[in-house]
Amino acid sequence: MRIVTTEDIEYRGAFGIEHHVIPAGTVCIEAENLPRGLTPKFWACEWDGMSEAAASYARNYGFLLGDDDVEGLDCEPQEGL
Question: In angstroms, rounded to a whole number, what is the distance separating the alpha carbons of residues 74 and 59?
């Protein structure tokens, strides 16, 4: 089982300037490059139909999500996602 978003997520970047919708079922990977806290964090991967603006935001900042935004946490991390 893969880690994916549970529903469409309206994502607003810093200062509310950027606004993107991450579709339900978007594959996510654990944010292993961040300090571990009480709740895990995940990066949303590219999705079908991703706009150039969203792709640019993902490359420069990333779409950081919490454990309440994803499902499939009982699986082992997948290589190459």
Answer: 27
pLDDT tens-place values along the chain, 81 residues long: 689 999 999 999 877 788 999 999 999 999 988 887 767 899 999 999 999 999 999 999 999 999 899 998 664 444 544
pTM score: 0.81
Cβ(8)–Cβ(24) below 8 Å: yes
Provide the residue ranges of all domains of the chain, joining segments of one domain with +. 1-34
How many other C-beta atoms can be found within 10 angstroms of the C-beta atom of residue 42?
A: 21
Phi, psi (5° rounding) for residue 24?
-60, 140
